[in-house]
Design brief:
alpha+beta; Cytochrome p450; six-stranded mixed sheet; 16 helices
Length: about 400
């Protein structure tokens, strides 16, 4: 096979204007070719669905263990101990993944379902006491912070640290820009608090955290691994769900016909959530590192070089999706890569779906129409596509 040099583009995917509206850049990347060289950061980029999907599933050639951000752990010291799930490959990845998959499995979700649906109804009733509200703090943040820390077994004190800690962790996957610098002063404080919550003595006896420590007692994982696995819950289990809930609430406010579909058939709540994850892609990017020289669509990526996968671009690739810029509940969005794909696919995605189903079901039963009350505002993050404010007005039956 003849190796070709990929087209080079001098763009900054982490510039503020691009983070605020990445769609034009994503279009340019897809149209430039299956592999693009980003000269500003000297990394290879994949923006088409076919190549992104293949890269996500090829853990042998494209490793996560060298870091899923721009930093290359082969040469750089990570700012915290690497994640045993996100930043590890088999065989080190296997046991932690198996334990967390069981902890967050169907039995755990069946046990939580009734309580979370009741919590969602109570919260939605409180929020809808006023016809206008900001959906980000009132629903997208409030519900995950209401139910998920309880499920993990965290104490009440200090939970306000979860969102800023996660925000910095996802910013740190990008370059050392202003967003990283802004969060840096609080890193020691936030990291110390999170580390303390992962200790066995600080967790309730019946939550996800306790179940992870019980797995260490059984020998399924080591006792050194247990707190790092709990940390994975606290890092990726809140921010991503918050922003995915924000995405689906914004999607419905901007697409009233789709809200009517959900009202007519509330069983579409999970389809709606996945379609919003495809459409908005709360997790926009992740990196991999080439193990040996790797051929991707005729381009050789040299050993040790970073590859930037644009999940959001893949989820709007017209080569894979019909009318990809439309939020459409008649679509089957199940093949989206918003939760990743392969062995590193988000282990907590079913928890996020349950949270979203609870909120959407409660809201659909009470709100005839939802509409934007003012212009929403973006929250900028190097990895996440998020809203800081979504002003909504709700019309009740």
């Amino acid at each position: 096979m003849t190796t070709t040099l990929p087209p080079a583009l001098d763009i900054d995917p982490f510039a503020a204007d691009v983070l605020r509206d990445p769609l034009p850049m994503q279009h340019d990347l897809r149209e430039a070719g299956p592999v693009v060289h980003l000269s500003r950061y000297d990394v290879y980029a994949l923006a088409r669905y076919e190549q992104v999907h293949a890269a996500l599933t090829d853990w042998q050639s494209l490793q996560s263990a060298a870091g899923v951000g721009m930093a290359n752990f082969r040469f750089e010291e990570p700012w915290r101990p690497p994640s045993l799930l996100l930043e590890a490959d088999p065989p080190l990845h296997d046991a932690p993944r198996a334990v967390l998959g069981k902890v967050l499995g169907p039995r755990a979700l069946r046990r939580l379902r009734d309580a979370w649906f009741a919590d969602a109804e109570e919260l939605v009733d409180q929020v809808l006491a006023e016809p206008s509200f900001d959906a980000v703090p009132a629903l997208a943040q409030a519900f995950p912070l209401r139910v998920f820390p309880d499920a993990v077994g965290l104490p009440q004190e200090g939970r306000e640290n979860l969102l800023p800690y996660g925000d910095h962790a996802f910013n740190a996957f990008g370059p050392h820009n202003e967003l990283v610098a802004k969060g840096a002063p609080r890193v020691p404080e936030l990291s110390g608090w999170v580390a303390a919550q992962c200790a066995r003595d600080n967790l309730s006896e019946d939550g996800f955290g306790a179940q992870i420590w019980a797995a260490a007692d059984r020998g399924d994982i080591t006792h050194d691994q247990a707190p790092l696995i709990v940390r994975s819950l606290l890092t990726a289990g809140v921010d991503t769900t918050v922003h995915a809930l924000g995405a689906v609430l914004y999607a419905f406010a901007a697409n009233p016909a789709q809200w009517e579909r959900l009202r007519a058939d509330p069983s579409l709540a999970r389809v709606a959530f996945d379609e919003a994850v495809r459409w908005e892609s709360p997790v926009q990017t992740f990196f991999r590192t080439a193990v040996g020289d790797v051929d991707i669509a005729g381009t050789t990526v040299p050993d040790g070089r970073k590859i930037l996968m644009f999940l959001g671009a893949a989820n709007r690739d017209p080569r894979r999706w019909t009318d990809p810029d439309a939020f459409d509940l008649t679509r089957d969005p199940s093949a989206h890569v918003g939760f990743g794909m392969g062995i590193h696919q988000c282990v907590g995605q079913h928890v996020a779906r349950l949270e979203a189903e609870a909120v959407l079901t409660a809201l659909a039963a009470r709100a005839d129409r939802i509409e934007l009350a003012a212009t929403p505002e973006r929250h900028l993050n190097n990895t996440l596509r998020a809203w800081s404010s979504i002003p909504l007005h709700v019309h009740r039956d």
